[in-house]
Amino acid sequence: MDGKIALITGSTRGIGLGIARRLAENGCYIVLTGLGDQQSIDKIVQEFQSSYSVKVNFVPGDLRDPSSIRQLCEKVTELYPEGIDILLNNAGIQHVAAIDEYPVEKWDDMMAISLTAPFYLIRHFLPYMKKKGWGRIINTASQMAVISAPGKAPYSAAKAGLVGLTKGVALEAAEYGVTCNAICPGFADTQILEGQARMLSEKMNITCEEAKQKFFASKHPTQKLVEINQIAGMVLFLCSPDADNVTGSSLMMDGGFTIQ
C-alpha cells in the first residue's frame, strides 16, 4: 500500500478515523475530511504526522452542498494531480423517526450525505483511477440496506441506494482494474452507539457496557458488536491484490443479524 492515496469521508471520528489509521499504518497517504472543530482536527492531523511516516492532509467539505463537494474535489486534485487511488465513501448520519413525522430537511441531508455525495465523488475521481489502471472504491452502507426497522425507512432507502450505486459502478469500472464494493456493518461499537447506550443505561439504571450488550450486541447471533478495527481490516483486504476479483459485493459484517 506504500504511496497509495486514500480519501476517506467522515474520517474525523468513528469508523472513518479507524479506517484512516489502518491505511496509514500500511503506507497510504491520507486525505481526511469530516466534521469537527479546528482544534480537534489539528490534533488528528498531528497524530497522523507523528505516528505514521505518510503524507496527511485535511480538506474541508460540506457533503450536503454540491458546490462544497466540487471545491473538495478540486482541492484534493490540486494536492494529487494524478488523482487518488482509494475512495472511501464513509460519511453518514442517523435520524430515527416515523415516516409521517420525519423532518423533510433530515431526509434531504440523509440522501445528500449518504447517496448524492458518493455519486459526485465517484464521478470526479473514477476517471483518474481508470487512467491509472487501478483503484478501489469502498462505500460504507449498513445492514439496514437489506432490511429495515420502524423509524429507519429513510436510512434504509439511502443505504439501499448506495448498494445499488456500488453494483453499477463496479460493472462500469471492472475492465479498468478498479473495484467497487460496499461494507454493511451491523451494530458497531462507535461513538454514536456509545451515546445511545449511555442514555439507555441511565434510563434503565444499568452500566453502559450492560446496555451495549442487552440492547445492541445481543441482537447479533454472535452476541458481539462489530469493532471498528474489524471494519478497517475488511477495507485493507479489499484494497489488497487478494481482492482483485471482489467487486460489486455488499459485504455483511453484522454478526449474522440479517440471515436470521
SSE blueprint:
Elements: E1 5-9, H1 14-25, E2 29-33, H2 38-51, E3 56-58, H3 66-79, E4 86-89, H4 104-132, E5 135-140, H5 153-173, E6 178-185, H6 191-204, H7 208-215, H8 228-238, E7 250-253
Parallel strand pairs: 1-2, 1-4, 2-3, 4-5, 5-6, 6-7
Helix pairs in contact: 1-8, 3-4, 4-5, 6-7
Family: Belongs to the short-chain dehydrogenases/reductases (SDR) family.
GO molecular function: 3-oxoacyl-[acyl-carrier-protein] reductase (NADPH) activity
Keywords: Oxidoreductase
Question: Could you walk me through the main structural features you see in this protein, from its secondary elements to its overall organization?
Answer:
The protein is of the alpha/beta class and 260 residues long. It folds into two domains: 5-186 and 226-254, 3-Layer(aba) Sandwich (Rossmann fold); 189-225, no CATH class. Helices cover 47% and strands 13% of the residues. It is built from eight helices and seven strands. A seven-stranded parallel beta sheet has the order 3-2-1-4-5-6-7, with helices on both faces. α4 runs parallel beside α5 (153-173) and α6 (191-204) crosses α7. The protein is globular. The mean pLDDT is 96.
Number of domains: 2
CATH topology of the largest domain: Rossmann fold
List the helices and strands in order. EHEHEHEHEHEHHHE
Helical proportion, percent range: 40-55%
Give the amount of beta strand, in percent. Answer: 5-15%
- Which shape, going by the Cα principal axes? globular
Compute the average pLDDT: 96
CATH class of the largest domain: Alpha Beta
Q: What low-confidence regions span 5 or more consecutive residues with pLDDT below 50?
A: none
Pfam families: adh_short_C2
Keywords: Oxidoreductase
Organism: Potamilus streckersoni
Catalytic activity: a (3R)-hydroxyacyl-[ACP] + NADP(+) = a 3-oxoacyl-[ACP] + NADPH + H(+)
